[in-house]
Amino acid sequence: MGGVPKQRHTKSRRNKRRMHIFARAPILVRCPKCGKPVLPHTVCSNCGYYKGREVIDVLAKLTKKERKKREKEMKAKGKEEAETKKEKPLTWEELSKK
């Protein structure tokens, strides 16, 4: 006839079966170029870079206003990186100070 259970499954037995059925949070990494969160092994949708190379020209798809805004952001980001690189390394005397 049909699939009718002979005995009722308890709540604990049901929950044990369902223990592995759940949605996992996506694992995100930071893009080395722009710092935005990206799925691993995928092209960054913000800057278009993958493994240090530009794969997609993101600015070509934007409108004139959006392109200008994005270029301004990238320029500001470049200046910040240049300032951090200009910092001279600490000497032993500076490191020993509390």
From TrEMBL:
<dbReference type="InterPro" id="IPR044957">
    <property type="entry name" value="Ribosomal_bL32_bact"/>
</dbReference>
<dbReference type="Pfam" id="PF01783">
    <property type="entry name" value="Ribosomal_L32p"/>
</dbReference>
<dbReference type="GO" id="GO:0015934">
    <property type="term" value="C:large ribosomal subunit"/>
</dbReference>
<keyword id="KW-0689">Ribosomal protein</keyword>
<feature type="region of interest" description="Disordered">
    <location>
        <begin position="64"/>
        <end position="98"/>
    </location>
</feature>
<comment type="similarity">
    <text>Belongs to the bacterial ribosomal protein bL32 family.</text>
</comment>
<feature type="compositionally biased region" description="Basic and acidic residues">
    <location>
        <begin position="71"/>
        <end position="98"/>
    </location>
</feature>
<keyword id="KW-0687">Ribonucleoprotein</keyword>
<dbReference type="InterPro" id="IPR011332">
    <property type="entry name" value="Ribosomal_zn-bd"/>
</dbReference>
<dbReference type="InterPro" id="IPR002677">
    <property type="entry name" value="Ribosomal_bL32"/>
</dbReference>
<protein>
    <recommendedName>
        <fullName>Large ribosomal subunit protein bL32</fullName>
    </recommendedName>
</protein>
<dbReference type="GO" id="GO:0006412">
    <property type="term" value="P:translation"/>
</dbReference>
<dbReference type="GO" id="GO:0003735">
    <property type="term" value="F:structural constituent of ribosome"/>
</dbReference>
